[in-house]
Amino acid sequence: MKQRSFDKNLALLAAGQGVSLLGxxxxxxxxxxxxxxxTGSAAVYGSMLAAAMLPAVxxxxxxxxxxxxxxxxxxxxxxxxLNGCTVLLAIPFLRGEGGIWAAGVLMVALGILGAVETPVVxxxxxxxxxxxxxxxxxxxxxxxxMLSAMAGPALGGVMxxxxxAAPMLLVCGLCFLATAGLERLIRLDPVEQPPAAGGVxxxxxxxxxxxxxxxxxxxxxxxxxxxxxxxxxMLCNGVAGVGAPxxxxxxLALDAGWYGAAGSALGAFGILGSLTAGLLxxxxxxxxxxVMAAMGVCLLLAGAAFxxxxxxxxxxxxxxxxxxxxxxxxxxxxxxxxxEMQRRVPGQMLxxxxxxxxxxxxxxxxxxxxxxxxxxxxxxxxxxLLCTGLLVLALGLAGRRSLARLGL
Length: 408
Prior knowledge:
Layout: H1 6-39, H2 42-58, H3 60-69, H4 72-94, H5 99-128, H6 134-163, H7 165-183, H8 200-218, H9 220-251, H10 256-279, H11 281-284, H12 288-307, H13 312-344, H14 350-378, H15 381-398, H16 400-405
């Protein structure tokens, strides 16, 4: 791809993602506040969240196949148009007696569209930028995602208090339509489409089988990277996602303000991690196993503080510092892993393999949360942190050779 279109394409793609993700973030808050306000039931809300997450796992293979068999630019535009129209059409129904059902249907519909959109955007990125700039491009897109995730709840909280759910949905719907307008200006290099097998199910089966054969026979090191990323997501999201609220609120008996400060720090270090990956891409290449090992060392330090019973504030500081360091390293690892997959996988099967990786990570997150929910209940917190740190450290050192085969 010629360098002429790099800056413009990346700016358009990043702007479109920023507007879309900000709309999604505000929309998530609006729907959650609406459901909890109408029902007062955490069980109802939790069930609706679970139903909305199912499409991300079940429909990920279909989303990957569509991303490889349909023009990606047109598909991104149509998906955002559908997102916008779905949200706008739901507004009148939320005002009626069946508002809770309408909210549930809307959450599931957006989950279905999101299951297709995620692999499409990830597969389109290598068509939009020069091959040598993938780390920088992925870092920029990740920064936009994190900034939207941080700004969305704050903006949504103010808007919900002032206007309620319906005006917020109107703004979110318009955000999706604006994203579709921006995506019309993106220029993507053409990708050769694989021949159809005849029939939707047969094509789906053939495409998925071809992707698995490609990983197992032609790129076994890439298969190891996908598995390693899923294991890291399970361990790190589990220990941080369950450990941060449990240890701060229950074990250390600190109020919600301390937990909020920890969450803000994690968000800031996530952005710092994406900046680090983008600015130091050349220096970090070939050293990714040390990035993994550093994640384990961070947890070892937090575990030592809890085992030594260092005191309430010292343990809090060690825990937040450990999770922030782990967050920074995890983001760096994610940027490099995603960029290497985009670089090595042929364009006609990139969507399927990006969807496979995303589905494995999504499946690993609840497994990690269940595991660490059990471990923190039955084991001393220090030993849970220490053992997880040793495991992540060992994975980093053991993965040195397989990562070296990929130049990572």
